[in-house]
Amino acid sequence: MTAAELIKTLAVRLGVSQIRARALLDGYVVAITRHLQDRHLVILRNFGTFGLKQVAEKRAYVPAKKSLCLIPAHQKLYFKPSEKLRAEASEAEPRE
Amino acid sequence: MNRVYDKVVIDDLARHLSLAAPLARRSAEEILAIIREGLLRDGVVNVTNLGSFRLKPVAARTGFNPRTRERIVIPAHQRVVFSPAKALRDQAEPQRQPPVPIVPEESAALALALGVPVAVISDAADEPRPPAVTVNRDEGSIAAPENRLDSEPFPPSEADPSPRSVQAPIVEKLPAGPVATTLVAHEHGMVVVPASAHPVGADDTGSEKPRTMAAEKTARSSTRRNYFLGVAVVLLLGSYIAFRLNSAPAALSAEPASAAVNQPASPPVSQAANVYFKEQTVKIAPGDSLWRLAEKNYQEAILWPHIYQANASTIDNPDYLVEGETIIVPSLEGPPDHLSDADRRSIARGYYLAYLFYKTTGRSDAPFALMMARLYDAKVVDNVALRAGNTGPAE
C-alpha cells in the first residue's frame, strides 16, 4: 500500500477530501515525531511502540578501504509491534 | 523516559489542527487500522515522513524451551519490520558522529597534525567494553551504568550549546608511571592517546600482554615495509657509490677500451698478459654460489653477473648452482675498482639476463637487477637485443 492509497482510503473512511485526509495523516506523524524528539516512548495501543535505543560503539570493516573503522555510540529509532499485530502478522499468509 | 499513550498524541493532533476531539480520535484510529490492514493484505505500507512497515518472512527453525529443556520447532512465520524514513531519523535521532578510521599508533600523530579524526589501536582494545544501557520499564527511564563516561543516555539538555551532539566515549587508559603522553581532545570529542614509552605488547605492570590480531597485523606489515625500504635504500646507495668510484677511471680508460674494441676477437698476447684475472674452469663444489665464486676469484662478490653471463647456457637460475657442474669463470680485464668497458658491458649483460629470469619467475626484486644492469651499461637492453635473442648466450 502506497502513501497515496493510504490517503485515499482514509478520505473515504472519514468522509473528507483527500487534501484533508493528507493533512490529518501529516499531523498525526508530526505529533509522533515531536514526542520522539523529546525522547518519549510513544505507545500506540494494539499497534506498537516507537522509541529510541542506545547502540554501543563497535568496529566495522570497510571493504573498499580494507581497513577498520570505529562507529561511535549512537541512538537508533525502533518500532516494536504489539502482541496483537505480531500474532496477526505471523498468521498472515506469506507473500511471494 | 516518559511514556506517551494514544490519548496524548490525539490531543496534540486536535490542538495542532484545531480539530474536535472525537474527529481527532477517530482519525488516529482509522490511520492505524488502515496501516494494519494494508500491512496484512499487501505486506508493505509506506507512510510519508514516518517510514515503511513490511512483513518479513522468517524461516522455520529449531528452538529450545528452557523450561522443559526440549527442542521445539518454530514454524515459519512473518514478522513486522519498520524502516524509519530519513526525515523521521533526522528529526528524532540525535546527530550521529561519522565513522572514524582506526589507524596504527605510528600514523596517529600525522593524522592529528592534518586534523583528521582517527581512533588508535592500542593494547587497551582488549579491555572489557562498558556494559550496555538497560531500560528500566517500571520507572520508565533508561538506567546507564555509573562507570560509563557517557553516563547520560540522551544528549544533554538546553545547557549544552550543541544539544544534538553525542559524546563519543573513546578514551584509552593512560599508562601509569613517568611516560610522556599527550591527551588530545578533538573537536568531535575523540580522544587519542599516542603510543606509550613501553615496548609494544607490554602493559604497565611490565608483563607482556597479547596483542589483538589487528594490532599484530599492522605491526608486522609496518615492520616488513620498513625492512624492504631499508634494503632498497642500502642497495641504491651502494650501487651509486660503486658507480661513482668506477666512473672516473672509466673515463680515463676510454681510449684504450675503444682501441680494444676495434681489435680482433682474440686479444693479443701483450693485452692478455695484462688482464686482471685469466679465464678458468671451475667445478662447482657443495655450498658454491656465483656470489662466492666472484668473491673468491675476483675479490669482489658483486661481479657475479660476469660469471653468470659467461655460463648463461649452463646456468638457468643464477641463485642455484648444480653441484659437480663445470662452469667458466671468465677473465676480467681490469681490477674490480677499475673495470674496463668490456667488463662493464658483460656485467651489465649478466644483470640483464638475471632480470629476465627473475621477471619470468615473478620475483619482486627483478627491477633491481635491471637497474643494476643499466648502471653498468645504459644501453644494455639494446646491446643484448642486437645479439642472438634475449635469453640465449652471446658469442
Q: What are the salient characteristics of this protein?
A:
heterodimer, A: 96 residues, alpha+beta, three-stranded antiparallel beta sheet, two-stranded antiparallel sheet, 3 helices, 31% strand, B: 395 residues, two-stranded antiparallel ribbon, 12 helices, 14% strand, disordered C terminus
Can you put this structure into words, describing what you see?
- The complex is a heterodimer of chains A (96) and B (395).
- Chain A has helices spanning 3-14, 18-37, 83-91, and strands at residues 41-44, 48-55, 58-62, 67-71, 74-81.
- Chain A has 96 residues and is of the alpha+beta class.
- In chain A, the strands form 2 sheets. Chain A has a 3-stranded antiparallel β-sheet. Chain A has a two-stranded antiparallel sheet with strand order 3-4.
- In chain A, strand 1 (41-44) and strand 2 (48-55) form a beta hairpin.
- Chain A starts with a helix and ends in a 5-residue tail after the last helix.
- By secondary structure, chain B is an alpha+beta fold.
- Helices cover 40% and strands 14% of the residues of chain B.
- In chain B, helix 1 crosses helix 2 (21-42).
- The model of chain B is unreliable at 131-208, 250-272 and 388-395 (pLDDT under 50).
- At the A-B interface, helix 1, helix 2, strand 1, strand 2 and strand 3 of A face strand 1, helix 1, helix 2, strand 2 and strand 3 of B.
